[in-house]
Amino acid sequence: QVQLVESGGGLVQAGGSLRLSCAASGSIFSINDMGWYRQAPGKQRELVAAITSGGSTNYADSVKGRFTISRDNAKNTVYLQMNSLKPEDTAVYYCNADLVFMGPRGLGSSDYWGQGTQVTVSS
After folding, report:
1. I need a labelling partner for 120 at 20 to 30 A (CA). Which of 15, 29, 63, 77 fits?
2. Can you give the pLDDT at residue 16?
3. How high is the pLDDT of residue 1?
4. SS3 letters for the chain?
5. What's the confidence (pLDDT) of residue 123?
6. What average pLDDT does this structure show over 93-101?
């Protein structure tokens, strides 16, 4: 069983900062890509930022220069540092991990999602 648990969301004024964390736990053999997605009311879920196991990163154009994704492989944790927040960043933020787990029949791979954490930016 694998779980992704997010933390760090909240309410912040425009221009402020928040740091999200997502810790993966359970029968994990290895983690490939990790990422953060967000979904605003009435909109589709979209990729915010992603990071490979080697540390290569990818960002949505709307957050480039403001958000930074990082990971601690020893802790199976991914972070999202969000600076210069704007009201349009308001959304539920979800952590995602593409990982290899240890199951009863050996190794398997799957995509896992966290439960989501609310980020609200007031103007």
Report:
1. 77
2. 98
3. 86
4. CEEEEEECCEEEECCCCEEEEEEEEECEEEEEEEEEEEECCCCCCEEEEEECCCCCEEECHHHCCCEEEEEEHHHCEEEEEECCCCHHHCEEEEEEEEEEEEECCEEEEEEEECCCEEEEEEC
5. 94
6. 97
In whole angstroms, what is the distance from residue 48 CA to residue 29 CA? 26
33 has a pLDDT exceeding 90: yes
* Residue 47 in this model has a pLDDT that exceeds 90: yes
**Cα(85)–Cα(63) distance, integer angstroms:** 9
Find the angle CA(105)-CA(74)-CA(19) to the nearest 5 degrees. 115
Residue 22 reports pLDDT greater than 90: yes
Distance CA 121, CA 110 (A): 33
